[in-house]
Design a protein that fits this description.
- The chain is mainly α.
- About 80% of the residues lie in helices and about 0% in strands.
- The chain has ten helices and no strands.
- The protein has helices at about 1-15, 25-30, 40-50, 55-65, 70-90, 100-115, 120-125, 130-150, 160-190, 195-225.
- Helix 6 (about 100-115) runs antiparallel to helix 8 (about 130-150).
- The radius of gyration is 18 Å and the shape is globular.
- The N and C termini lie far apart (about 40 Å).
C-alpha cells in the first residue's frame, strides 16, 4: 500500500508543481554567474532529478517489471543517453520547444509506460512496441523538456558547455540516487503477497498521474495563448 500512498501524494500535490521546475533561488544563481562552475551545476543537476517527479514516475514505470539488474541497467542507460543528448544539444544550439507542449508529451510518456505495463497494446492492437526504443525516444523527449526550461534562464555563454556537462553529470547522479530508492521500495514490495494483486492498480494510478500532467500542461498552454 506504500506505493499507492506515494503516487496518491503526487496526485494531491502536482497541481502546485511544474515539470522541470527550477527554484527561484537557483534561477537567480544561474542567471547571475558566468564562467565555469562545475560543482554548483553538478549539484543543480542532481537536485533537479531528485525532485523531477515526471522523471521519477517514468523510471518507476520502466523498472516496474524488471527483476534483473542487468536489464535495469540497459533501460536506465538508454533513458540516460536520450536525456543527456537532447538536454545538452538543446541548450547549446538553442533549440526551442514550447515548454507546455513538451511537458505534456512527457506526461504522456508516463501514460504510455503504464499502458505498456498493463499489456494494453498487446490486447488492443495485437503487437508489443519495442520497449527499448520507446525508452530511448522518451529519454530524448525528457531531455528536451529540461533544455527548454534552462533556455528561459539565459545561462551565460561563458563556460556554457562545461557547465552543461557538469549539470548532466549531476542529473545522472540524481537519477542513480532516485533509482536506488525506487529499487529498495520495489524490492520490499515484491516480497509481499500483495504485489501481484496490486500491480495492476498501481499502474492505473500511475497512468492517472500521467494524464493529470498532460491536462495541467495543455491547460497552461491554452491559458497562455
Amino acid at each position: 500500500m506504500a506505493t499507492f500512498q506515494v503516487i496518491g501524494l503526487f496526485l494531491l500535490t502536482c497541481v502546485d508543481a511544474f515539470a522541470h521546475a527550477v527554484t527561484q533561488g537557483d534561477k537567480g544563481y544561474i542567471q547571475e554567474i558566468s564562467g565555469v562552475h562545475l560543482l554548483p551545476f553538478t549539484y543543480l543537476g542532481a537536485k533537479h532529478m531528485m525532485t523531477g517527479y515526471d522523471h521519477i514516475l517514468f523510471l518507476l514505470g520502466v523498472i516496474f517489471f524488471l527483476y534483473k539488474l542487468k536489464h535495469i541497467a540497459v533501460y536506465v542507460s538508454l533513458f540516460a543517453i536520450g536525456h543527456s543528448t537532447t538536454m545538452v544539444l538543446g541548450v547549446y544550439y538553442n533549440i526551442g520547444i514550447n515548454s507546455y507542449l513538451i511537458d505534456a508529451v512527457i506526461g504522456f510518456s508516463v501514460v504510455y509506460k503504464a499502458l505498456d505495463n498493463l499489456g494494453a497494446f498487446q490486447r488492443w492492437f495485437g503487437v508489443q512496441p519495442n520497449t527499448k526504443a520507446a525508452t530511448l525516444v522518451f529519454g530524448l523527449i525528457h531531455g528536451f523538456g529540461l533544455a527548454t526550461k534552462i533556455q528561459t534562464y539565459e545561462v551565460s555563454p561563458d563556460g556554457l558547455l562545461p557547465n552543461l556537462l557538469a549539470f548532466n553529470v549531476g542529473v545522472e547522479i540524481g537519477q542513480l540516487l532516485a533509482l536506488a530508492v525506487i529499487l529498495i521500495g520495489m524490492s520490499y514490495w515484491r516480497r509481499t503477497a500483495g504485489f501481484v494483486r496490486h500491480a495492476y492498480s498501481a499502474n492505473v494510478v500511475m497512468m492517472s498521474a500521467g494524464f493529470t500532467l498532460v491536462g495541467m500542461q495543455l491547460t497552461g498552454y491554452f491559458v497562455s495563448q
